[in-house]
Each structure stands twice: as C-alpha cells, then as structure tokens.
Design brief:
The protein is mainly β. The chain is built from two helices and 19 strands. The N and C termini lie far apart (50 Å).
Length: 363
C-alpha cells in the first residue's frame, strides 16, 4: 500500500502533468488599474497604491434551549488586499471575535479575542497554475470558502461544514483553472503544516465551547485536494474533496471524502454538501454528515430558506437531525438581515434547538 507521502507525490505529479501546458505560456495581460475610492461591498482603494481595505461586521441574537439569551457583536473583520497588477497578490483578514456580549443582564468583553483569520501570498503564473503560501480557508466543500456572515443565508452553520475538519490550513496551495469541454475544472491541492507554521492554530467548536471528545482542533498536518467542475452556463457547480490529516491534541489519522454542489436557476438556489471521515484509531466509528439547503425569493429582496441536516459525530451516540427555517432581507448586495429557527432530535450537544437573528454588513 502507498503511504500518505507517496499518495501526495502521485497527486502532485498527476496534476503537474495536467497543468504542464501552462508552463509554456505567460499569464494573461496585465488587468486595468482598479477604480479609486470606496465601492460598497468591495472596500476602499487607497489612491496611488495597490492596496484595498475592506471587511465586514456582524451582530447576532441567540436564544438556545435551556441557555440564557445572548446578544453579541460577533465579528469585526478587516481585509487588507494588495494586487501588483501582475503575478503577485497578497491578502490578510484580521478579526476581533465576540468583542461585546450581552448575557445575563450584563455586558462583557471577556471573550473578545484578536485573531489572524487569513494571511497569504499568491503567485499567479497563469490561469492554470498559481501558488498560495500562508494561512487560508480549508478547501473542503464550498461553504467553508464563503463562510463570512454577509455572504451566507443563515445565522447558524451546518455541522457538515463545521465539526469534521479544521476551518484553516497553514501551508502551500497549488490552484488553478483548467478548460474542459463545455466548462472548466478548478482545482486546489494543499499541503498543511499548521503545527510548525501557525503560532496560534485554532479551530472553534460548533457551540463555541470545548466539548470533551469532540475533535474540532486545528490541523497538525494535512494533505488534500478539492476539484470543482462548472459548465459554461455557470448555472451549477459540482465538487469533490479528499483530505488526510491529523488533529491537534487527538491521536490517529483521519481520512475525509466529500462532495458538494450548487445549482441556481433564476427562481431557486439549491445547495448541499456531504462528508465521510474514517479514523485510523477508532475503526467502525466513522463520522459523516450531509445537508441540503434551498433558498427561494418571496418578494423583492426577501428570501425564504430551508435546510435539513443529518450528522453523525465520532464521539457521540445517536445521529443528529436538524431542520432550519429562515427569512433573509437583502436590501443591497452588501447588507443582509437574517432570522432563523432550528429544531431537531439528538442534536442537544452540537446543534441545540434555538432562535437566531443577525445583521451583517460587507464594507
């Protein structure tokens, strides 16, 4: 049997063969200079520089079963982007999480924490081949890559995208777009070394609390790939994921397989993800989950959302089932107000019943 390093090498060789034609061509022509000043939802272009500042802010209301009502300024994020107008780009996201909380009739800043969410440097050789070095979002499924509050439809996050793997990797990503018949393939091939490269590796639990036995730590080492096919019509996309990793403070190796899709005709958006994770230590106690979500317009700028999820965690008996129903008002593409009700069974520990609301702004 091939070892993990051998399989990774074979993956690198295979994709190297697929993208080799890009090595004889240069990147596309230099794009025009970006517009100066502020654009809602796209940040502020600093005049006379290649820097753009942006970010988002969100506030949330949570009322979970058997817990006090909680109001919080949950995210204050700053984006700093640099684009050389050539091959080099850089991006960082700095965040203050839970900066202000109102709970039990008291305001508190005790849980406020500064976090370096992302920080990476891109070298784009061509459309087919690019290199990303640093800390970025783990390319498993499509939700984790767009998880910022102003860009998603619900207040809560599916367990399938939350509890089975770390949200972040710190290392190297090879990425690009390869033309195909009547469409395009996008790939991201990654090698993670968070234990050596990230001074403060972290991955929050779904509830925000440490739960014994729930494996939600940061990666120690990870290798994987995400492939996505999108037709020329861009009406849908289909992705597959593979990842092999270790988790901080837990023994054993994990192997994860995943699928995701997004279909959005004019009248509906339908999406879903599924993961299956094997554990080298606990054979026969695999972890898996899947969700299906639909979003439909009701009247202009108002949307109805429904999501069903079925999740089995390695450390828990039983299988969690949840149904989330919500409404969202998007007065502009950069602003969204959301309301959500979640109910289920065998879901008390990771995704308890509750009522949620939030407002989020993308600057």
């Amino acid at each position: 049997m091939l070892g993990v390093s051998q399989r990774t090498l074979l993956l690198l060789l295979f994709f190297g063969a697929q993208i080799a034609p890009a090595l004889v061509a240069h990147a596309s022509d230099t794009p025009p200079a970006p517009p100066q000043g502020y654009e809602p939802g796209r940040g502020y272009q600093l005049q006379g520089t290649h820097l753009r500042l942006g970010g988002y802010a969100s506030a949330k209301y949570k009322r979970l079963r058997d817990t006090p009502t909680k109001l919080e300024i949950s995210d204050l994020s700053l984006f700093v982007q640099w684009d050389s107008q050539g091959r080099w780009r850089a991006f960082s996201e700095l965040e203050i999480g839970e900066s202000l909380i109102f709970e039990n009739d008291e305001f508190s800043t005790a849980d406020a924490e500064f976090e370096l969410e992302r920080a990476y440097l891109d070298y784009i050789y061509s459309d087919r081949l690019g290199f990303r070095l640093g800390k970025s979002l783990t390319p498993i499924g499509h939700w984790n890559s767009i998880h910022a509050d102003p860009l998603i439809w619900t207040v809560s996050r599916p367990l399938t995208t939350d509890a089975g793997f770390s949200h972040y990797i710190t290392g190297l990503i090879l990425r690009g777009r390869v033309p195909a018949e009547e469409g395009i393939w996008k790939y991201q091939l990654y090698l993670d070394a968070s234990a050596q490269l990230d001074p403060k590796p972290d991955n929050p639990s779904p509830t925000g609390k440490n739960i014994p036995g729930i494996e939600t730590g940061a990666f120690e080492h990870a290798q994987g790939i995400h492939l996505q096919y999108q037709p020329d019509s861009e009406a849908w996309q289909l992705g597959v994921s593979f990842s092999h990793f270790e988790i901080e403070d837990f023994s054993g190796h994990k192997t994860l397989f995943g699928m995701d899709f997004l279909w959005h005709p004019e009248f509906l958006e339908l999406s879903g993800e599924a993961i299956y994770r094997k554990d080298s230590k606990d054979q026969g106690r695999d972890e898996w989950g899947a969700f299906l979500q639909g979003v439909a317009p009701i009247v202009p700028r108002w949307y109805a959302i429904a999501r069903y999820e079925h999740f089995k965690d390695l450390a828990l008996e039983g299988e969690a089932h949840t149904l989330s129903l919500g409404l969202a008002w998007r007065p502009t593409p950069a602003i969204i107000l959301k309301m959500e009700s979640r109910r289920g069974r065998e879901n008390e520990l990771l995704a308890p019943d509750g009522i949620f609301a939030s407002t989020a702004v993308l600057f």
